Structures are given as C-alpha cells and as structure tokens.
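Weekly puzzle thread! Below is a chain. First person to post its structure in token form gets bragging rights.
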Amino acid sequence: MLRNKKNKSPEKEMSFLDHLEDLRWHLIRSTIAVVLLAIAAFFAKDFIFDVLIFGPKNPDFPTYRLLCELATNIGLEDSFCFTKEQFRIQSRTMSGQFSAHIWTSVLAGFIIAFPYVLYEFWKFISPGLKENERKNSRGFILVASFLFFLGVLFGYYVVTPLSINFLGSYRVSDQVFNDFDLSSYIELVRASVLASGLIFELPILVFFLTKIGLITPQFLKKYRKFALIFVLVISAIITPPDIASQVIVAFPILILYELSIVISRWVVRNQERKEKSHAK
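Winning reply:
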C-alpha cells in the first residue's frame, strides 16, 4: 500500500478511497495543464495551422527537399521530388473548421504538457516504490519525454510527409480530383504524430516490464523474428503501401527494439548484482 502523503508516516497507509482521491487530483492537475496549453495553442491558430498542420502539404517542406536531393544524387532523378500541391483541403460542414481548431488545440496542449502529465503519473506511483527503485528511476520523466518528442518529430517529419505525398498524389483515374476534407487531413497528421510518439516509448515500456519480471532479454531475442514481422505490419498501417516508406519507418523502430533488448539486459544484470550483494 502507498503511504499517506499528507501524514508522511511509515505506519499510516492509504485506503482504497484515499488512492482514488489522490489519483483524482493528479488527473485534475494534468487536465488543467493540458487545457491551459490548449488555450494558448488556440490563440496561436495561424502558426499551428499554416506552419505546422499544413506545412507537410507544401512542396518546400524540408523532408521533400531532402528526399529530392537524395534521390537525385543516387540516380533516381525526380521520383521522390514533390514539385506542386497535389490536392486541396476543404471543409464541408458548418462547424468543421471550428471543431478542427478546438481538437487540434487540445492535441497541441497534450503534446506540450506531456512531461508534466508524466510527472503527475510519477508522483502517483513513486510512493509505492522502494527507495532504491526511486533512485534508479530518477531519469524516467526526462528519458520518456525525450523519446516521446523524438517520436513526435519522426512522425511529423517522416511519416506524415511520406503519407501525404503518396495518398495526396494517388489517383485511380484522371477524372477524379483529390479534394480532401479538413477532418480527414488532420486525422492523418494526428495519427502519424501520436502513433510515432507512443511507439518511441517502447524502451521505457520494456524497462518496466523487465523490472516486474514479465519479460526478459532472452524472451526479446527469441521472438525477434516475430517482432520484425510486427514492426513491418505497424509500418504498413501508419505509412502508405510503398516499400520505400515502410523501410524508412521500420528502420528506427527496429533500432528501438534492439535498444530495448540492451535495456532489458541491463535491468536483469542490476537485479542479479543486487541479489548477490544481499546474499553476502
């Protein structure tokens, strides 16, 4: 049981209702942080939409320029060059633009507030950990936030433009012109960014699963082939169905998986070292 934070007494333990009350306040504070930052994002409409949201549809987006240069240098000519906008975005409902503004602001608020949300989550679970476990997990918020933002950047600069370039230029016939609904476009950007941010939390997840004994380095190595198939499936889901895009997305995820094996091995070694020291 977690100790009572108000009394801070080793003998005083929190009841189930006390836990719920404590959790409620952590959730309230996290929600307040998200809402405040969402309000700030709401008033930064021009930057959020014109620069960030609609940036990946513009031909001069950094990812397109880089891919075009790389393709030209290796002799693929302009196969990866995005020279003009392939589609238009429209809103076909009365509240479409306002709803998109609201929910995009909420998403921006959550992404910016992510470290604080993690901090509140950590404050809730840390009293139930042993002193040495708290010391070993001090960098949890920093590392988890770094991985999340790294994943968000990967989703924004890699997954999103690849998806937009492929889906925006794909046509079954010249008689069909691509006019995408605003909500559909934003959904693609949101899914790409959030999915990548959460996938990049894999090392953190493996760390805690190893700590509680649910997985081991041997388990991760044994099922590496199945993990490869799973990664390719995930890449196929969050990217357009062309081989180049799937390989580009799958490569960093595989690196994260190998990093997770290293982390799991490190956790197991630390636990074995502590068991030996206690045995002495």
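Puzzle host: Confirmed. Bonus trivia for everyone else. Residues 243-279 form the longest helix (37 residues).
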